[in-house]
Amino acid sequence: DAKANATGTMRYFVQRMGEQVRRRLVLERDLRDALELNQLSLHYQPKVDLATWRIIGFEALLRWQHPQHGNIPPSEFITVAEECGLILSMGAWALQHACAEAATWPEHLQVAVNISPLQVMTEDLPATVEGALRLSGLAPHRLELEITESVFINETRGTVNRLHALRKLGIQIALDDFGTGYSSLAYLRRFPFDTLKIDRAFVRELLISRDARAIVRNILALAKSLRMATVAEGVEEPAQVAVLSAEGCDIVQGYFVARPLPAHEVLPFVRQFRERSRPHMPTGFHLG
Ligand code: C2E
Ligand code: MG
Ligand code: MG
Ligand code: MG
């Protein structure tokens, strides 16, 4: 009957909730050892300049290979790492490894590292970045930090000062996932970012929604007038490349170019990409 049914449903949800809580506890416990046990690695996703169709650099993305649960996506473990403070040591590790890796690449290639708001809130971030540059010997202009606008939610005077201190090291700073936050436009006045990354959500809609295309066009115009370079994230199809190119976007990144690659595949990829010609773009592309 209905009552038994409801009880059954309830039991199911409690069980599912229990599973989630358990998984979360296991992740938190195991994440503490992941660094020492060498379970973390960085994959690198290329960024391509639309004007020249050349690779200009790679974004470093954390990967966690769990001995029992396999590959755990950053969407799951970054939040856990932020909630228990582990993101600080993981973030420092990522910075050091990404800089050391990039120092072995040809000099025209940059590396971008994602930085958690929690790292930006700590006083020693500029020292950590400086240390990573010094240890690796990477030229500062080849390093870009990607931060999200959530950095500004609990903004203090320290936050913006720290971003300026980082900029003084000679590195670049990008605003990641632009357009998904609370009040994106206000943040553009707080700090002069070098680069603006348009979130995948807009790119996904680009071919099916006139509104998304209008938003992208205006984000690009805004970025240009503020002298920021523009990157479109999550580009998966040639027609998206064509539209972004027509709208004046500078750089594309996404599965259309490549998925994030393990470190040892970076240089071979760069070599074979040079031989690969620019893909044919549909011309005169219009929304139907
Ligand atoms: P993000 O920085 O915006 O990175 C882009 C995400 O989109 C990556 O997911 C990437 O693999 C994925 N992606 C790239 N191209 C495509 C595409 O064409 N289609 C689709 N569907 N997805 C695409 P990933 O690697 O799972 O990382 C997710 C998020 O986790 C990142 O978003 C970033 O916020 C965070 N993250 C990753 N590594 C780090 C890190 O070292 N430190 C910090 N603080 N956060 C990190
Ligand atoms: Mg990013
Ligand atoms: Mg992003
Ligand atoms: Mg994103």
TrEMBL record:
It comes from the Bacteria. This is PAS domain S-box-containing protein/diguanylate cyclase (GGDEF)-like protein. It comes from Sphaerotilus hippei. Residues 24-274 form the EAL domain.
